[in-house]
Design goal:
Elements (H helix, E strand, L loop, with lengths): L7 E6 L5 H8 L6 E6 L20 E8 L4 H5 L1 H17 L5 E4 L3 E4 L2 E11 L2 E8 L20 H5 L5 H22 L1 H10 L7 E5 L4 E9 L5 E5 L2 E5 L3 E4 L2
Parallel strand pairs: 1-2
Antiparallel strand pairs: 2-3, 3-7, 4-5, 5-6, 6-7, 8-9, 8-12, 9-10, 10-11
Amino acid sequence: MTDWPQGYGRHVFDSIDSTLSEAARMAPTLRGSAWILAQEQTAARGRRGRSWSTPRGNFAGTLITPRTGSPANAALRSFVASLALHDAFVALTGKPEAFALKWPNDVLLNGGKVAGILLETHGDHLVIGIGVNLAHAPDPAQLEARALAPVSVVGETGVQIAPEAFLDALAAAYARYETQFTTYGFAPIRSAWLSHAARIGEVVTARTMRDETVGVFEDVDADGNLILSTPKGRVAITAADVYFEG
């Protein structure tokens, strides 16, 4: 077992409505940071209120931590969490070449979506919800058009990972990157994230509720924005769903 990081609580539930909801309930009285894991979620949600399938065997976890700095600074924790997920996957599967990071908050395995991250704030706390398809992948028929096909760790690698073992590896990796972030700022996090970025240098589509932008994925800037090179010049995307071409 990976050594549990100091300063982080650990709460494991057999069944719960949602680890995000439990984090919200804990927030008013919580001191410090804590990880919440559920073996089963009965009312899970993803970005923009989308449902998230969490059968037993998959990872459904949330980190709740005191929010420091500006809202923009807090949002950069999605990159911290992405890198922690990447390290946990590599440590537990031994397959670094199989994993890539998709802006703004997904992890890919052999090109399919294996994990997603959702950030929320509750009062003075930042809440980072993480779902990982360890054993099961959602039905592709339930996905919106052009969304990446979901995959599972066991389906793609044959490696079986228990949710609690994944939590131990993830929490340790997150603590390392969080220390790096608070000590040195976003620059080293950004560089590390870009070294694992999916489809950099390729054409992607960034879609918001109002419009979409098509361009070459060129960079992620110092504020965490997606930088696309378009016929009209470089465009910075603050928040969007990103779709790959081909």
